Recover the amino acids of this structure.
């Protein structure tokens, strides 16, 4: 039996060219349990086709989907002190940073890009939840400020994609200082007369929600995104009451006036481009159907 198992079966498998199935070939829908082919999901911007569930995506993927033809120029982030408090819990903070950098290929949780959407030049700032939960530390704070400064310098609107668990506990009060600093730079952008649009993705919580993420001219949320300061479980334990169905989800917040609109990721680019053209007084392209009707009317008048 060992001879068959150890020699004959491997020999047959090699002759037939048997290969192991890639683990990420299919992805499970967290809501319905449906299995979705990875390539189909990727081509649909990681939105489950059947249920519309929006999966988390990296900052680089976000910019690639958002900018025209996926082309953009990355803005170099400023250097910031590493582990200023020499923090350690179960692991050293420096070890956590090293692991996060290896996992995401990013220096910290924020990525800035300069490019165009439907021909309109903009600056986009994206938080990556995969980098320590998108937490806001000194390096991330400096990167966000650099994004706003770039928009002011180039006189371009800024679109910010928020995704965060809040302030980074390993940096203590130094992390909380970034909330005030980012608020100041938001005011500078508005003083320059430049539009600021915020896209709230899943999740956007903590100090990020209490600062720059809720200071936009327009607030757009992705469907089903969790948005709030403290989490639902903490609130329930504090007030000792059951929260309403869908509390702190994007749709609930829109109904109660906390966000302006809920827009699918598949329609974000066109929606934001139209908003920015209105805010910057850029002529809008005519709707094809209306343009055709106008052309037909001119022809009839001429006849």
């Amino acid at each position: 039996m060992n001879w068959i198992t150890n020699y004959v079966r491997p020999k047959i498998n090699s002759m037939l060219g048997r290969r192991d199935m890639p683990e990420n070939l299919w992805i499970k829908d967290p809501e319905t349990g449906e299995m979705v082919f990875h390539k189909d999901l990727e081509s649909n911007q990681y939105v489950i086709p059947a249920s519309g569930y929006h999966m988390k995506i990296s900052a680089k993927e976000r910019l690639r989907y958002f900018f025209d033809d996926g082309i953009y120029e990355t803005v170099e982030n400023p250097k910031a002190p590493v582990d200023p408090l020499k923090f350690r819990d179960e692991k050293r903070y420096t070890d956590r940073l090293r692991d996060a950098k290896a996992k995401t290929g990013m220096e910290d949780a924020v990525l800035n890009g300069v490019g165009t959407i439907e021909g309109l030049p903009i600056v986009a700032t994206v938080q990556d939840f995969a980098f320590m939960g998108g937490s806001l530390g000194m390096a991330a704070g400096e990167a966000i400020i650099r994004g706003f400064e770039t928009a002011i310098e180039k006189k371009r609107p800024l679109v910010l994609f928020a995704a965060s668990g809040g302030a980074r506990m390993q940096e203590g009060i130094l992390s909380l200082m970034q909330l005030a600093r980012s608020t100041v730079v938001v005011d500078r952008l508005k003083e320059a007369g430049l539009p600021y649009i915020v896209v709230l993705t899943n999740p956007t919580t903590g100090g990020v929600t209490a600062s720059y993420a809720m200071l936009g001219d327009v607030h757009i949320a992705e469907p089903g995104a969790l948005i709030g300061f403290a989490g639902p479980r903490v609130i329930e334990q504090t007030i000792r009451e059951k929260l309403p169905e869908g509390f702190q989800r994007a749709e609930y917040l829109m109904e109660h006036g906390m966000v302006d609109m809920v827009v699918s990721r598949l329609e974000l680019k066109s929606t934001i481009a139209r908003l920015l053209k209105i805010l910057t007084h850029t002529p809008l392209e005519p709707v094809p159907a209306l343009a055709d009707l106008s052309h037909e009317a001119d022809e009839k008048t001429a006849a």
Notes: The chain has a mean pLDDT of 89. Residues 172-191 form the longest helix (20 residues). The chain has two domains: 1-55, 56-284. The CA atoms of residues 68 and 106 lie 22 Å apart.
